[in-house]
Amino acid sequence: GAVVSQHPSWVICKSGTSVKIECRSLDFQATTMFWYRQFPKQSLMLMATSNEGSKATYEQGVEKDKFLINHASLTLSTLTVTSAHPEDSSFYICSARRGSDYYEQYFGPGTRLTVT
Amino acid sequence: GQNIDQPTEMTATEGAIVQINCTYQTSGFNGLFWYQQHAGEAPTFLSYNVLDGLEEKGRFSSFLSRSKGYSYLLLKELQMKDSASYLCAVLDSNYQLIWGAGTKLIIKP
Question: Which of A91, A94, B85, B94 qualifies as a cystine partner to B102, CB 3.0-4.6 A?
């Protein structure tokens, strides 16, 4: 159990457009989901934490109006990159935590975003 | 501030043993994780230590000393497929994962 999927696995979009990335917990209810960004040869950088039904908590330096996060259900969270620019090109990874399982996060396979 | 240090890169030989160290200074401690990440893929869970001592799991072992703020990941009988980045992460008092920058492990035949 504890499988997390992401869609799409990779996407190419033009500068100025928006792109939505979905993160789903397939076999458990995710009370908390996390969105990370990872640039080449760097570690994961937490962007935001979202709890089902409430607004996401963004890390310092992450623009909430640019990276829209919606956690509408216990199995789905979406990240929308609005007005994308080439510098937003990165590897976006979501993870999910279930119920009272405070210590473990289950990672999705990641989404490679390229903005041209 | 919160800080996790691990070497940037290590090289080892196929069949040998390698130890990847991690030191941490965090606000609170609720456990330490080791993850493996191959290029272009998401991290995969290797181990979780919350008590002092050594946890062995097949070819991989992880050690924790809370008093020293120190952990290591030991990989035995190295295989070429072990070439990857190894990420150390600490769960702080708010149950947030604090990530190290990762150690790129290069295995040579």
Answer: B85
